[in-house]
Design goal:
single chain, alpha/beta, Rossmann fold, 2 domains, 6-stranded parallel β-sheet
Length: 371
């Protein structure tokens, strides 16, 4: 089977795509794949690390305000569509899989113009601008959540949409033993562990709160794994030497399954991918939604966990050391609550999302091959 995967920009788009790719490769050992993204983005780096063939298009995000930059962006879009046609005609994929991000639009649009089957994955409860256009001609749209909007049936027939949950990589479904991961990461397996992360791009508000919190901690109160994101890493990387607790600081990590699996509590943003990983592992969490997410979807995501007792929500505008630390202490020192939060999170998990999506993709390819 020959497939193109397109999307990227953030780990929230990339890692679900890798999960789908893993499942397709497990079912088809002769799978040929190309990833279409943007040069210099995270997806290029990850494709290089994993040996996935990568091609780029020069598109950039569409400016929301009317300005001269819209004309430049329109020109880049036109160039990207022309390049997409060239890629498609040369590679001749049997299906194109879109996982989100503005970079996915040109190749998906071009594939639809060439009558190549396309499928989309929408992570949020409302279709993004690109997916709203592309869903009209896509063969299938996979959803992480039920849509929080009513779409016209004559344009978006309901049978096109399938709630699968958000795919997670296989490493999250069967993480190694705690002792093994703790030895690998230099952690004490007997001590409570907190993982702080703000997504692949980091989160300034969370990082500032954690840095201010360090001086308020008791010696060896708990241990912290802190993913700062690349932008803030230089600013905070030397705090480990001054900390009264065990503190491991990283700019980014691809070993998130290991880090999350040994953590007793997560402090994180509430993107769909992060929540999928949290629920599959059954991890209690304090969620701090990104306040500028489109349609405020991160708060909506976070509230869905809070409403069932799986998480506590702290809004970004209220996030500081004085508000975060008491919440951490209250949860970590209550084993009954930790257990209840874990069980509640597991009930929201969709561990078979990747399998379901892979099955649907293979069925579509088979049906189009027989036409």
């Amino acid at each position: 089977m020959k497939v193109i995967i397109t999307g990227g920009g953030t780990g929230g788009h990339i890692f679900p795509a890798l999960s789908i790719l893993e499942e397709l490769q497990r079912r088809d050992h002769l799978l040929l794949v190309q990833w279409i993204g943007k040069k210099g983005n995270l997806e290029e780096k990850i494709c290089q690390q994993r040996g996935i063939p990568f091609r780029s298009v020069p598109i950039r995000g569409w400016p929301r305000k009317i300005s001269i930059s819209q004309g430049i962006t329109a020109s880049l879009l036109a160039i990207s569509i022309i390049r997409s046609f060239q890629i498609l005609l040369r590679f001749q994929p049997q299906i194109v899989i879109g996982v989100g991000g503005y970079v996915s639009f040109p190749i998906l649009y071009s594939a639809q113009m060439l009558n190549i089957p396309t499928v989309l994955h929408e992570q949020n409860s409302r279709l993004g601008m690109a997916n709203r256009i592309l869903a009209k001609k896509a063969q299938k749209v996979f959803l992480s959540f039920p849509l929080a909007e009513n779409l016209p049936e004559e344009i978006y027939p309901s049978e096109k949409f399938l709630i699968t949950g958000n795919p997670v990589r296989h490493a999250f479904l069967s993480p190694p033993p705690r002792e093994e991961v703790c030895a690998k990461l230099g952690l004490n397996p007997e001590r409570k562990t907190i993982l702080v992360m703000g997504g692949s791009q980091g989160a300034h508000t969370i990082n500032l709160a954690v840095s201010d919190m360090l001086s308020k901690l008791e010696p060896d109160e708990f241990q912290i794994i802190w993913i700062t994101g690349h932008n803030d890493y230089e600013k905070y990387k030397n705090l480990s030497a001054q900390s009264k607790v065990s503190l491991s600081i990283y700019p980014f990590s691809e070993d998130m399954a290991d880090m999350m699996s040994v953590s007793d509590l997560l402090v994180a943003r509430s993107g769909a991918s992060t929540l999928a990983e949290i629920t599959v592992l059954g991890k209690p969490s304090i969620l701090i939604p990104f306040p500028f997410a489109t349609d405020n979807h991160q708060e909506y995501n976070a509230r869905s966990l809070e409403n069932v007792g799986a998480a506590e929500v702290l809004l970004d505008k209220d996030c500081s050391a004085d508000t975060l630390l008491p919440r951490i202490r209250k949860i970590l020192t209550d084993p009954i609550r930790l257990n209840n939060m874990s069980n509640a999170a597991k009930k929201l998990a969709h561990p078979l999302a990747s399998e379901t999506i892979a099955e649907e993709i293979i069925k579509l390819v088979f049906s189009f091959s027989n036409k």
